[in-house]
Structures are given as C-alpha cells and as structure tokens.
Write a structure and sequence with these properties.
The protein is mostly helical. The protein has a domain at about 35-65. Helix content is about 40%, strand content about 0%. It is rod-shaped and about 115 Å long. The relative contact order is 0.06.
C-alpha cells in the first residue's frame, strides 16, 4: 500500500496533561446492610429478659415457702 501523507502534523506536549475528560459515571458498590435491631435495643431486650427471669425465680421461691 502506498503511504498517504497527512495534512495534519502530530503535536505532543512536552509537559502537562495530554488530554482530560471529565465524564461523570455511576459507580456501583456493595449495598450497605443495616442491622434490623440497634445495639441499644438488643441491650434493653436482654435486660428485660433478665429481669423477667429474676421475677420468675422469686415467684418460684415464694411458692416453695408457702
């Protein structure tokens, strides 16, 4: 094939950026999973269960004494 001479001469800069395109694009990331119960709610439920268990034990002791 014969070489075709271009009308345009290629010019590259000696310093700096050659080109820059700022194209916003969506970035997919992993979904953030939130806990169904907060830590505080879990602590409150645990305290409530312990209190109910203590009450049951006291009731059993009272029934045994009667």
């Amino acid at each position: 094939m014969p070489e075709i001479k271009s009308m345009f001469r290629e010019v590259l800069p000696k310093q700096g950026q050659l080109s820059f395109e700022d194209v916003p694009a969506m970035v997919l990331c992993k979904p953030k999973l939130l806990p169904l119960k907060s830590v505080t709610l879990e602590k409150m439920e645990k305290m409530q269960r312990e209190a109910q268990e203590t009450i049951r034990q006291q009731e059993l002791v009272q029934k045994d004494q009667k």
